[in-house]
TrEMBL record:
SUPFAM superfamilies: OsmC-like (SSF82784). It comes from the Bacteria. Pfam families: OsmC. This is Peroxiredoxin OsmC.
Length: 142
């Protein structure tokens, strides 16, 4: 079992409140977040950005391992994720994570690439965690 930790601190409340996120690894160290970073484009991060980063990273790693299991080596994968936050019934919910993948995998057919990518999309741990629509668009470059 692997356990990772992060913490958040928030001072003040509502729109005037300010927060900071810190991760165990130190990659985020008192990184600012709050209403302004979430909804107004101010410098800092927000939960949806962090979820998008986690989903892109997790999916890409799962796909990498799937391709290795299928006997492929070399090549490259690049994934972006867009996480959508919608206002629903007076609150908010994450409704979608849209993955966009570009891959270069020597010797693979488009159909096999699509199948392995779909399996990774369905089975990466972050996909399993998210209770929202997940889409995957992919391009296989030669």
């Amino acid at each position: 079992m692997t356990v990772n930790r992060a913490s958040a601190r928030y001072e003040g409340f509502g729109k005037e409140g300010k927060g900071a996120i810190t991760t165990r690894s130190g990659v985020l160290n008192a990184q600012p977040y709050g209403f302004g970073t979430r909804f107004e484009g101010q410098p800092g991060t927000n939960p949806e950005e962090l979820i998008a980063a986690a989903h892109a990273a997790c999916f890409t790693m799962a796909l990498s391992f799937g391709l290795a299991r299928a006997g492929y080596s070399g090549g490259s994968l690049e994934t972006s994720a867009e996480v959508t936050l919608d206002q629903v019934d007076g609150g908010f919910e994450i409704s979608k994570s849209a993955l966009t993948l570009t891959g270069k995998v020597p010797g693979i057919s488009a159909d096999e690439f699509a199948a392995i990518a779909k399996e990774a999309e369905m089975n990466c741990p972050v996909s399993k965690l998210l209770d929202c629509e997940i889409t995957l668009e992919h391009t296989l470059e030669s």
